[in-house]
Amino acid sequence: MEAALYEKLEGGRVHCFLCSHHCRISPGSRGRCGVRENRDGILFSLVYQRAVAAGSDPIEKKPLFHFLPGSDSFSLAAAGCNFTCFHCQNWAISQVPRGESPIPGRDLPPEEVVSLARRTGCRSISYTYTEPTIFFEYARDTAVRARERGLKNIFVTNGFMTAQALEAAADWLDAANVDLKSFREDFYRRVCSASLKPVLESITGMVERGIWIEVTTLVIPGYNDSEPELKEIAGFLSALNAEIPWHVSAFHPDFKMNATPRTPAETLRTARGIGRAAGLKYVYTGNLPGDEGENTFCPVCRNKVVGRSGFTLLDFNLRRGHCRRCGEKIAGVWE
Ligand code: SF4
Q: Which of 146, 179, 194, 212 could form a disulfide with 151 if both were Cys (CB 3.0 to 4.6 A apart)?
């Protein structure tokens, strides 16, 4: 499939502006993501309708807590990523195709993804596990069909897309969970081979476009768990919109961060307190099943409006998106 969002340069080179790496790619080479290749001056996506993962998940796993809670979301991934995070939990599929290695996956056309989603009772399709931005054409063609069949579309993303990519996606994207991995450029450069600023711009752009957004920060001991940094993240989100749910999640050792310990529960509870002190109305502890911080509380009367354990919905005390006790509107897409 010829790629979207690129321009031809002199000498057969191309400039890809799908993500903020802005790769200039010579004929016969691939971009940094390893899944977009310049063939004789034309940029091709190598992952179009090539799925490495496809199946239904609880939407709470994304995590999205304020978007069709209790529903299933059909999860789709193609190989590759534009980040190289040391702590990637899906590295086996995200970090595979670099250089000239073959692209893993099976043929799964967009219309088949939509049929599978409907057959399994899902109300949405999540483009997830790897970075959806870089399988943009596959996501787009699936998402447009999904919309026609009454399904919502969700990105679980690192937020490193360009403004042009976000603009193009805004027509069919309903919701996103964006990873805000740190509030330090140095972290993004060192750990992810990327940068922070485009991520902040994407979060802002999604809010401006009315895309429902929740933000996740995986709190990693010794990397991004200082109180000043967590306060900066919370302050940024709160200033943008205090109703953005913020998920502070526990890290577990993986990939190139095997020597780093798990996040203590207390660190997450402190982070949650920081978020609430900054004015955020909905802050959740993640990967801590059974913790009080998994539940949604009414910001006015503190009634537990949605009770959860892990990915399971236990209580639902909302009436048409309002707290059953005091009538306060709870931000989100409930129907
Ligand atoms: S999507 Fe891939 S090829 Fe395009 S700019 Fe990003 S890393 Fe480079």
A: 146
Which percentage of the chain shows pLDDT scores above 70? Answer: 99
The residue whose CB lies within 8 Å of the most ligand 1 atoms, and thus the one to mutate among 13, 23, 47, 103, is 23
Report the nearest-CA residue for atom 2 of ligand 1: 33
Query: Where exactly are the structural domains of the chain?
Result: 6-45, 50-294
pLDDT: is 97 or 273 the higher one?
273
Residues 18 and 161: beta-carbon distance below 8 Å: yes
Locate the DSSP E strands across the chain: 6-8, 14-16, 24-25, 36-39, 42-45, 50-51, 53-58, 72-77, 106-107, 124-127, 152-157, 175-179, 212-219, 246-250, 283-286, 296-297, 304-309, 312-316, 318-319, 322-323
Give me the mean pLDDT over the 63-90 stretch. Answer: 95
Taking the whole predicted model, whether its pTM rises above 0.90 is answered as yes
Ligand 1 pocket residue status of 31, Cβ below 6 Å:
yes
87 lines ligand 1 (CB under 6 A): no
Average pLDDT along the chain? 96
Give yes or no for residue 80 CB within 6 A of ligand 1.
Answer: no
Position 92 scores a pLDDT of 87
- Is 132 a pocket residue for ligand 1 (Cβ < 6 Å)? no
Does residue 22's CB lie within 6 angstroms of at least one atom of ligand 1? yes
Q: How far is the CA of 243 from the centre of ligand 1 (A)?
A: 32
pLDDT > 70? residue 261? yes
Q: Give residue 97's pLDDT.
A: 62
Instruction: Please give the DSSP secondary-structure letter assigned to residue 191.
Output: I
Does the pLDDT value for residue 133 go beyond 90?
Answer: yes
- The number of beta carbons lying within 10 Å of the beta carbon of residue 290 is 8
Within 8 A by CB and 6+ apart from 275, the residues are 230, 234, 237, 238, 246, 248, 283
> 50-294 maps to which CATH number?
3.20.20.70
